[in-house]
User: Which sequence fits this backbone?
């Protein structure tokens, strides 16, 4: 049960937490996604019933099962790993856990979790590490899932839940929860500019001025050119590399980013008949089939594996994963990073510290392991590495617009999640200057409504 009202532990970020009343009906507890990107688990509790908004895990395997709260139900905003990859642990903690989310999220989540099992199986052979969860546990998540259409209201005990389009990736949703005449709205990841299918956030359909508005803040300290200019820039970086006779390698994420990159390159492939354009990724094919059925890319070769001699020919290769720490990207990166005739283009603004890409950018060399001897060796980076910040998230201006659209009376408590401290501080200051009451909870902070 909730502890009585205390002010939020806010450490270095000091946004005040005002008391709304001496009594509370819903307790909100931040088990993840607080001052961090990903790992999102926000538990709402009402007289002993718990509903968790998203159920992510960290990318690394270092989390202990005790870090995963036992909950009665989960409302999933979207199927990116940082929002769903803990779901098998939710089932392990309570095998009766119910899951709610859109049907597209259900299908993509199923694919993602099964893929994690396969990755573990492959990598465990080499490292001897323990499997995160089994295929049965992954399937149990799909079976516990009640698909909910956008705009439809579904009830779970005292909670009423609605999902509205978030424009971030196919199936992504803003989650609106009502309980005891209070409304708590959570954006999930959100993109005001919309996804490749043309879906944009359904802000107008949300209840105005919820008691609590929980908003992501990934790029809360960045302003970007609009989507059109960024995409033009990306295409021109690819074409410059081609004009200078380079082969091109583009590592990208499996949902939305790789489809967008493929779509952009399909538009220019015809201008470069002496180049072959490959999208090589089993995940890309699976996700495209689930969520981008109308996406036709006749000028690209969509394959599960690359031809053996791809790097001996004029090729543009797009693969997963986005940070070259898995999938086909891992082996392509190893093969081309030390070659002057290659340009590597990262279609992402965010690069995690423990990725080979980050090592290449920071050190100018990358450490690999020799498969036959097990010994490590260094390769000097000779390929050009370029970055273009294509993004499926709103920037600071977009996030402020979203807050102003949903909370026009400025009575809501605005809660920042899914962002690092610098991003939350900048966005928080901007919102405060406009008269908003802003909180940036730390891990395990509680808020009563
Ligand atoms: Zn996320
Ligand atoms: Zn996301």
Assistant:
């Amino acid at each position: 049960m909730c502890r009585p009202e205390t002010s939020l532990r806010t450490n270095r970020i000091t946004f005040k937490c005002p008391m709304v009343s001496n009594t509370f009906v819903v307790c909100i507890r931040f088990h993840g996604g607080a001052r961090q990107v990903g790992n999102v688990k926000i538990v709402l509790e009402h007289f002993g019933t718990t509903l968790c908004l998203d159920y992510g895990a960290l990318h690394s395997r270092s989390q202990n099962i005790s870090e995963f709260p036992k909950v009665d139900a989960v409302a999933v905003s979207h199927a990116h790993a940082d929002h769903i990859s803990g779901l098998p642990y939710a089932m392990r903690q309570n095998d009766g856990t119910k899951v709610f989310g859109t049907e597209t999220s259900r299908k993509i989540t199923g694919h993602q979790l099964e893929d994690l099992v396969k990755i573990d199986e492959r990598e465990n052979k080499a490292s001897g590490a323990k499997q995160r969860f089994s295929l049965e546990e992954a399937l149990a998540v799909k079976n516990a899932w009640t698909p909910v259409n956008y705009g439809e209201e579904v009830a779970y005990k005292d909670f009423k839940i609605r999902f509205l389009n978030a424009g971030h990736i196919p199936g992504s949703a803003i989650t609106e929860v009502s309980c005891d005449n209070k409304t708590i709205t959570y954006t999930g990841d959100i993109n005001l500019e919309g996804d490749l299918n043309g879906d944009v956030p359904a802000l107008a359909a949300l209840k105005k001025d919820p008691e609590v508005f929980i908003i992501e803040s990934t790029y809360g300290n960045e302003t970007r050119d609009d989507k059109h200019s960024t995409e033009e820039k990306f295409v021109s970086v690819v074409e410059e590399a081609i004009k200078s006779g380079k082969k091109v390698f583009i590592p990208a994420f499996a949902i939305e980013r790789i489809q967008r990159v493929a779509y952009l390159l399909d538009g220019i492939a015809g201008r470069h008949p002496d180049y072959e354009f490959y999208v090589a990724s089993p995940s890309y094919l699976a996700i495209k089939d689930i969520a981008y059925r109308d996406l036709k890319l006749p000028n690209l070769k969509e394959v599960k594996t690359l031809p053996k001699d791809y790097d001996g020919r004029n090729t543009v290769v797009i693969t997963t994963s986005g940070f070259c720490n898995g999938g086909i990207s891992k082996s392509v990166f190893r093969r081309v990073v030390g070659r002057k005739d290659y340009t590597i283009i990262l279609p992402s603004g965010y690069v995690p510290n423990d990725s080979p890409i980050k090592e290449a950018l920071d050190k100018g060399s990358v450490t690999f392991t020799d498969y036959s001897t097990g010994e490590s060796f260094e390769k000097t980076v000779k390929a050009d590495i370029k970055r273009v910040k294509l993004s499926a998230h709103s920037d600071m201006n977009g996030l402020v617009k979203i807050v102003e659209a949903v909370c026009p009376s400025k009575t809501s408590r605005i809660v920042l999640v899914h962002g690092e401290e610098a991003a939350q501080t900048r966005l928080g200051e901007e919102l405060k200057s406009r008269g908003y009451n802003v909180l940036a909870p730390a891990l395990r902070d509680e808020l009563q409504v």
Q: What stands out?
A: The pocket of zinc ion (ligand 1) is lined by residues 38, 80, 82-83, 189, 418 (CB under 6 Å).
